[in-house]
Amino acid sequence: MAGAFLFYPAAQAMTFGYFLAALFLLAGGLSILETSANPFVIAMGPEGNATRRLNLAQAFNPVGTNIGVFLAATLILPRLNPATDAERAAMPAATLEQIQRAELSAVMTPYVGLAFVLLVIWIAIAFLRIPTDRESIAPDAARVQFAPTLRRLLSNRHYVFGVVAQFFNVAAQTCVWTFTIQYVIAAIGGTEAQAGWYLQASLIVFLIARFVMVGVMGVIRPAALLTVMALAGTGLCLFAATGPGLAGVWAVVAVSACLSLMFPTIYGIALHGLSDDTKFGAAGLVMAILGGATVPLIHGAVMDSHGAALSYVVPGLCFLVVAAFGLFDLRSTRHADAATQH
Fold first, then answer.
1. Minimal CA–CA distance to 223: which of 59, 51, 40?
2. Is 60 in a helix, a strand, or coil?
3. Is the Cβ–Cβ distance between 31 and 244 less than 8 Å?
4. What is the pLDDT of residues 195-233, one digit of tens each?
5. Where are the beta strands (DSSP E) in the chain?
6. Are 55 and 264 in contact (CB under 8 A)?
7. Which of 259, 219, 255, 260 has the alpha carbon at shortest distance from 239?
8. Distance, CA of 84 to CA of 88 (rounded, Å)
């Protein structure tokens, strides 16, 4: 909320560093929310269906994503001046400043609006009691000790493999969505605006598939579904890499269906059975989003050297790691014997 409100002074100051600070604070707050909310959802019911429950809760994430894209398209993009860099360089300083102020105001408006929405949510959380019998509360801060907890987590193969799988899952998601527009333009041509519709279609597919996967998990074990969808993601990426064209474009769009269940499913499987270490372990899984900041650099380098189509081999390989995690869990005996922990 504080980070979103900081967009107002940043717009007035017209300094990039202020925007960067606001984004950093906003992102930090969101990561803390993710670390806190996901274990809380897991604690709100039986551990046996915690992964499915987390998938249902996170099914509403893409709803917000699509709303965000809509707000950007309606509140920001129409208010941006179409002048090119060369035209801006030739403008009088006063005229250029006026244009920049208007554009920064357009960027600032939805973020400040978001801050007020977060304020309402903050008040609701502060005043509404949400009892959860299964959520453990440490009466003594010393009870949570960093070094011993970290050692226990690092000795848990399921958890460690889960963090690795989450790293590559977020890497694949970021690669697929970041370079969709470049792939579409290379495969079938058109403008960035036209290619952007395929990215919008990907987000809609992701949204619908999230709810579908929640239903399917009622009859198929989450780890099995994760494995199948990860292998399907690899297949679609390889098809897109070797067969660019309209069919390849729709293969890239279809990858979003494979991505839909991965984050919450990996999250739930990796945290299963951690007991008092669940909250601490949740932080490691959220930190695994680092994959989305590093692997796309490799994807971009491959695209620069070998083209947009072949670069989709990179997320295809990432999906193989996720599939390996799913197979690892399927072969595990921890669900057959609750006393056995890995």
1. 51
2. coil
3. no
4. 888 988 998 999 899 999 989 988 999 999 999 999 999
5. none
6. yes
7. 255
8. 6
Whether the Cβ atoms of residue 18 and residue 41 lie closer than 8 Å to each other: no
Alpha helices in 179-218 (DSSP H): 180-188, 192-216
Hey, how many other C-beta atoms are within 10 angstroms of the C-beta on 252? 29
Residue with tokens 């969101």: 30
User: Is residue 336 classed exposed, middle or buried when 0-12, 13-18 and 19+ CB atoms within 10 A define those classes?
Assistant: exposed
Q: Give the pLDDT band of residue 94 (cuts 50, 70, 90).
A: confident
Residue 180: exposure state from Cβ atoms within 10 A (0-12, 13-18, ≥19): buried
Closest of 194, 308, 175, 156 to residue 245, by C-alpha: 308
Quote the tokens at residue 260.
């839909």
Tokens found for residue 294: 């590093």
Angstrom distances, CA of residue 10 to CA of 105, 135, 189, 318: 10, 39, 37, 37
Alpha carbon distances (Å) from 41 to 36, 90, 92, 217:
9, 55, 55, 17
Considering only CA atoms, which of 135, 116, 119 is closest in space to residue 127?
A: 119
Which amino acid is it at 197?
W
Q: What is the pLDDT of residues 321-339, one digit of tens each?
A: 999 999 999 998 655 444 3
CA–CA–CA angle 46, 162, 158 (5° rounding): 70
Please state the φ and ψ torsions of residue 218, each to the nearest 5 degrees: -70, -20
* Separation of alpha carbons 300 and 179, rounded Å: 8
Q: Where are the alpha helices (DSSP H) in 128-156?
A: 146-154
> How many residues in total does the chain contain?
342
**Angstrom distances, CA of residue 150 to CA of 134, 138, 280, 341:** 23, 17, 8, 16
Which amino acid makes up residue 196? G
Closest CA to 246 of 198, 187, 199: 187
The confidence score (pLDDT) of residue 311 equals: 95
Place of tokens 């990179």: 314
Alpha-carbon torsion (24, 26, 29, 30), positive or negative: negative
